[in-house]
Design goal:
With about 180 residues, the protein is of the alpha+beta class. The protein is about 25% helix and about 30% strand. The chain has three helices and seven strands; from the N terminus they run αβββββββαα. The strands form two sheets. A five-stranded antiparallel beta sheet has the order 1-2-3-6-7, with helices on both faces. A two-stranded antiparallel sheet has the order 4-5. The longest helix is centred in the N-terminal third of the chain and has 16 residues, at about 25-40. It comes from Actinophytocola xanthii. Belongs to the polypeptide deformylase family. Its cofactor is Fe(2+).
């Protein structure tokens, strides 16, 4: 398919919860291919449909030796262990901050053909699955940062070459770390 432009921080589509996919058709297959091609072109670990301006619950991932896509995903933490590590986002290019995530998760959803999929992840893959599912809920990883780090992150974003316009409000994430998007 084709590499698409990635929506950057400040675009309202990144803050809008995506709707569930109901038609597993050729358009969905093309979207998954566009997500894949765009993610790979940027050497990303994952990419969600809202980052391409499409408000559907689908994302691709390619990290820690695992690769694929999930449609209408949910995830749950398999224990209460957390990880704190560097995280970035293709919609906030070139900037990284430490972010706390569940260390071990199981994500469930469907593939582009409507077949059930389950992905078990720990470490970087778990971080990626949570990050991309957050995108589908209109949540950015900035929302998960502690207040001091979030303030510093906003300063860096305002100084970034790619940033234009008024700074949107960064909100505190309403979702529990261990509840996932179930």
């Amino acid at each position: 398919m084709t590499v698409q432009p990635i929506r950057l921080f400040g675009d309202p589509v990144l803050r809008t919860p995506a709707v569930e996919v109901v038609d597993f058709d050729k358009e969905l297959q093309n979207l998954v291919k566009d997500l894949w091609d765009t993610m790979e072109s940027q050497s990303g670990a994952g990419l969600a449909a809202p980052q391409l301006g499409v408000g559907l619950r689908v994302f691709t991932y390619h990290c820690d030796g695992a690769a694929g896509h999930l449609v209408n995903p949910t995830w749950v933490a398999t224990d209460e262990e957390t990880q704190n590590g560097e995280e970035g986002c293709l919609s906030i290019p070139g900037l990284y901050w430490d972010c706390v995530r569940a260390k071990n998760v199981v994500a469930r959803g469907w593939n582009m053909h409507g077949e059930p999929v389950q992905v078990e992840g720990s470490g970087l893959l778990a971080r990626c699955l949570q990050h991309e599912t957050d995108h589908l809920d209109g949540v950015l990883f900035l929302d998960r940062l502690d207040a001091e780090t979030r303030k510093a992150a906003m300063r860096e974003i305002r100084q970034a070459d790619w940033f234009e316009g008024a700074v949107p409000t960064v909100k505190q994430n309403p979702h529990s770390l261990f509840g996932g998007a179930v």
